[in-house]
């Protein structure tokens, strides 16, 4: 009986040792797997834009995708957009979806300078890096929400002033013009209007009407038709983006005023480049949409790599585009 007990204890001890060694081996394998995965993990960056129906934002998306493909081992990219420029609730929902999806950074061109700030604050609180491009977030709202978000983009007022100055060089003091504004709660829309106004004031040119077409071509066409009907002596239309410039162009053609009413825009989309070459639109501003998202993504990658880095804005180029430039 004692011999049986000794044999049983020996077998049990051997089984326990084997089990313990197996657990240790599995634990080591898991630890190695964690180390490998953590070393290979790529940052995930979400690009959230405004309407992808707008050529400016579709070119921005293509520029970002091309950059990611060229830097494929560096980060993963998720591209999102909204149906139209005014779909604020959907853009807020996209921010929340990307946070829930566990992205490391959000690079956003906000549809509104104020309405997106609370959602972006929540993203920051969740540990997500946020970089603002294209349309600057409202500084007072940022301060009220107690967050700092870097802006990467052009000086929209300076860009609009360049366009306005070029237009003024083709007009004379006392001429009348009208302005098609962007969304009035958008910082870039306000800045472009101010740039246009400064250029016209400097040249002694009178703005007889200024209304928001909310960045939309069809609304711009309707407003421009009304403006041309009400103000018979208008010599030019200043549009705060190229989609609205194209809407204005259709209105000018409809009124048989091609060559009589000059048009300027902002964004340098392909359709407007062709209209400039054809002499139908006078000028636009190029804020390098194909590169703008890339500038924001590169800024986000730096902040992911160094979370303690100082949060700073970065100004990007904006250039006057005329027929001479496009030759």
TrEMBL record:
- Which range is the signal sequence, renumbered to this chain? 1-27
Name the source organism.
Answer: Gimesia aquarii
Q: Which UniProt keywords apply?
A: Signal
Any one GO MF term held by the record is: carbohydrate binding
Q: Which family does it belong to?
A: Belongs to the bacterial solute-binding protein 2 family.
Name the gene that codes for it: alsB
- According to UniProt, the name of this protein is D-allose-binding periplasmic protein
Q: Which PROSITE patterns match?
A: PROKAR_LIPOPROTEIN
Q: Which Gene Ontology terms of cellular component type are present?
A: outer membrane-bounded periplasmic space
- List residues of the Periplasmic binding protein domain: 45-304
CDD domains noted in UniProt: PBP1_ABC_sugar_binding-like
Report the locations given in the UniProt record: Cell envelope
């Amino acid at each position: 009986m004692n011999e049986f007990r000794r044999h049983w204890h020996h077998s049990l001890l051997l089984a326990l040792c084997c089990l313990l060694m197996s657990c240790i081996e599995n634990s080591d394998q898991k630890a190695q797997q964690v180390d490998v995965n953590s070393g290979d993990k790529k940052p995930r960056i979400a690009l959230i834009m405004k309407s992808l129906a707008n050529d400016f934002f579709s070119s921005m998306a293509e520029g970002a995708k091309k950059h990611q493909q060229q830097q494929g081992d560096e980060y993963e990219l998720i591209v999102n957009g909204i149906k139209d420029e005014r779909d604020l609730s959907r853009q807020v929902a996209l921010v929340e979806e990307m946070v829930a999806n566990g992205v490391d950074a959000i690079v956003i061109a906000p549809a509104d300078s104020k309405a997106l700030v609370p959602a972006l604050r929540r993203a920051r609180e969740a540990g997500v890096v946020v970089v603002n491009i294209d349309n600057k977030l409202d500084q007072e709202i940022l301060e009220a929400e107690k967050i700092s978000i870097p802006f990467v983009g052009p000086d929209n007022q300076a860009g609009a002033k360049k366009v306005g100055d070029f237009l003024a060089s083709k007009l004379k003091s006392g001429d009348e013009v009208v302005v098609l504004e962007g969304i009035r709660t958008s910082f870039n829309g306000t800045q472009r209007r101010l740039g246009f106004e400064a250029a016209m004031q400097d040249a002694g040119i009178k703005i007889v009407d200024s209304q928001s077409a909310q960045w939309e071509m069809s609304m711009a066409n309707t407003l421009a038709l009304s403006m041309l009907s009400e103000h018979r002596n208008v010599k030019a239309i200043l549009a705060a983006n190229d989609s609205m410039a194209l809407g204005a162009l259709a209105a000018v053609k409809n009124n048989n005023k091609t060559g009589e009413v000059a048009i300027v825009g902002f964004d340098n989309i392909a359709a407007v480049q062709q209209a400039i070459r054809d002499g139908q639109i006078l000028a636009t501003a190029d804020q390098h949409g194909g590169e703008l998202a890339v500038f924001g993504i590169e800024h986000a990658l730096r902040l992911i790599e160094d979370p303690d880095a100082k949060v700073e804005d970065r100004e990007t180029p904006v250039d006057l585009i005329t027929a001479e430039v496009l030759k």
